[in-house]
Amino acid sequence: MTYIQLRTALPGPRSTEWMERMYQSVGKAKAEKTLVPAIIDYAKGALITDIDGNTFIDLAGGVGVLNVGHSHELVVEAIQEAAARFTHTDYTVFPYDSYIQLAEEICRRAPGDFTKKAAFMNSGAEAVESAVKIARKATGKRGIICFEGAFHGRTLMALSLTSKVVPYKEGMGPFAPDVYRVPFPYVYRWPGHPSEEEVCKQALEHLERALYTQVSPAETAAIIIEPIQGENGFITPPPAYLKGVQELCRRYDILLICDEVQTGYGRTGEFLASEHYGIEPDLITLGKSIAAGMPLSGVVGRAELLDAAGDGSVGGTYVGNPVACSAALAVLQVYDQERLGERAKRIGEQIVARFTALAEESSLIGEIRGVGAMQAIELVRDRDSREPATEETAEIIKLCLQRGIIIFKAGLYGNVIRFLVPLVITPEQLDEALDVLTNAIREVEARNANPACV
Fold first, then answer.
1. What radius of gyration do the chain's Cα atoms show?
2. pLDDT in tens, 343-360
């Protein structure tokens, strides 16, 4: 069975008409560079069909939002039932049971042998902003340490913590003060290319040195870190690194905030990536796949920290929307019933096996990395110099789109292909998608090796 169905060139005639209207009415910040040049009609599982009848295999998952897939029946049913009851009260005005149930479930699942509480927001960036506010209020300290290559969102504090300048930060300053940045252990591109163990050692030394050269422990409220860096290309730290960061936090009385917006909800094979690395953060931010596309995010952590923030200090009118909370409860039901953590591990094995084999013939593949289904391949023009294959990566993604695969890039140089597939994708669907991707890599490599033949 073939899952990809392409009936027209992209964009098709109906999509073209709508996109012309889009360019006239939607700001360029959202309209100029959409990944897929088409307008969606409907989606189910890991498949998306546009209004011209073209069906794609989705390896992007709404940028990591759809771990349970598009329009899962349990989630749709929960949304419909909740919306029929009521759509909004503002939780601080008239609370509802779905919020309470969700808080109980998230606290139960979060790592750490201590009492936890949770609070919910709308977006990952809001969760990050709230976690920082909670950390500062609870500790009475203002400094926040973050990392090179980090992405934490696009609101003021979140953008200040985000590392990549273009397109996120250029022309957007000034940024929030008391933010301090240190290197993340990006083993593949660490200066001198030492061993993984040496990179871990040096990165921890950089972090501790910052407490003497940038901000003192007495003024540092928290260190915020992605267990695996997402937008920077799924940079996976050495196994001992995160435990080293936690030990440093404990030693200097600094809170540890883990941003699990992209790594959470089974992406790495565990419910949270923190579990994979054996750490117990003081605060964890959640988002993306928490509610299968409904606007919802959250902060979970030590009860005394959530309580220290004080009444009304974090929140907003729409935060913890009742329909979104009901969707989030259904997502947890799907996660448990369909054993999505186990499926993530199998997806990762399937991806790694395919690209390990391809790497034997393709010198474009510099590194294959990741945990569970959170996999990425970094493309380089030369394996010795590790020069980023930025243009080639763009060509490959364009070819994939023309052939019915939705996938996108990441990394500081735009040379990383990352997988954020719905965890409900079937092995057959993933195989078909990987066939398209591997053929695109071969074709681009051959074309660039023999430009006269183009």
1. 22
2. 999 999 999 999 999 999
| Global pTM value | 0.96
For the segment 179-224, what is each residue's pLDDT rounded down to a tens digit?
999 999 999 999 999 999 999 999 999 999 999 999 999 999 999 9
Q: Which residues of 94-125 are buried (b: 16+ CB within 10 A; e: fewer)?
A: eebebbeebbeebbebbbbeeebbbbbbbbbb
Query: What CATH fold (topology level) applies to the domain 73-337?
Result: Aspartate Aminotransferase; domain 2 (3.40.640)
Which CATH code fits 13-71+339-453?
3.90.1150.10
Per-domain residue ranges of the chain: 13-71+339-453, 73-337
Identity of residue 416: V
One-letter amino acid at 420 equals L
Say which residues have a Cβ less than 8 Å from residue 155's Cβ, sequence separation at least 6: 125, 126, 128, 129
